Amino acid sequence: MATEKVFRARINRRRIRELFLDGEYISIQDLKDRDDIRLEQKVQKYLSKDISDYPSPVEFHITEVAHVTNKTSLEDIWESEGFMGLNRESLSWWSLKINEVDIRAAEERFLEKLFPDITKEEKTAHPPFLSEFTTSPLFLNETSRYGNFRFTFPLTELMEAYKKQKCEGQEPILRIYETKLFKQEIEYVVLVHSPEFNEMFVQFPLLTSSPLVAYDGHQIIWKAQAICETHNFRLAICGNKAVAQSKYPFQFYVWDQLNFSEYEGPRILLCTPVFPRILCSQIADVHSKDSSRGFISQRESAVYPVI
User: Fold this and answer.
1) Are 245 and 176 in contact (CB under 8 A)?
2) Are 165 and 87 in contact (CB under 8 A)?
3) Cα 299–300–302 angle (5° rounding)?
4) What is the top-level taxon of the source organism (predicted)?
5) 129-155: per-residue pLDDT in tens?
6) For residues 182 and 175, is the Cβ–Cβ distance under 8 A?
7) What DSSP string describes 20-74?
8) Which end of the chain is less enclosed by CB atoms within 10 A, N or C?
């Protein structure tokens, strides 16, 4: 009988202690039942709570990803005209960019599960409720904990660039990299790498084996288990309606997110042959929209605050 792997602790680049488990995605319910996690008092402060009556799981179909950085790293990106791994594993990190349209679409999928006989017209006419629950930092696109500057790309563009530059035209490989656990945050990490490095990463299962995350070549399908950081509402079913009702007292709980780590190796993931320069102090959101100009275009507005 194989011995169950246990979470280990490390200090990350932000000098924060994190627990991690390689090659597995551990659901929130399974985390609650693990002996090694029961010993973590700071984690148990939130994880051990029994929060009921909130939407879970919620299935999001995501087509955009974002790379958030600080001013120093932003200047390095402009200078190198691309992205490179900054840590010893040569990984560059990308988070999901979930907008209001994504939330509304997820809400309709959730309604289909609650009410299997609901019609398209009834879904469209149903009063919004999910946005009352999407309060974790994952959904706060106006701010970031990781820096003042955000690059946003369609997932298909990023993967196509990676395919051409890193994989010699072959399809990238996606694997279950790790589950990371903080005091209140649970992070699931997808590893993306070239088929050239299959042997290096063979110990990590293919993403196709995950019940929480899938990739269909165009979008990420993610079943979020905890979309609230602060629970101010409870989900109530009133006839054929799902309603967000005020909850008192409010409750703090864990929240989960999904991130991508791309193995860059010694080569930079180039963005465009001629990388445009703009004043760093004027950049709020660097967004790829016009593929005819190359991998990146940009807009200028107020700087995102750091939290």
Assistant:
1) no
2) no
3) 135
4) Eukaryota
5) 999 999 999 998 766 666 567 888 899
6) no
7) EEET----HHHHHH-HHHHT-HHHHHHHT----SS--SEEEEE-EEEEEE-HHHH
8) N
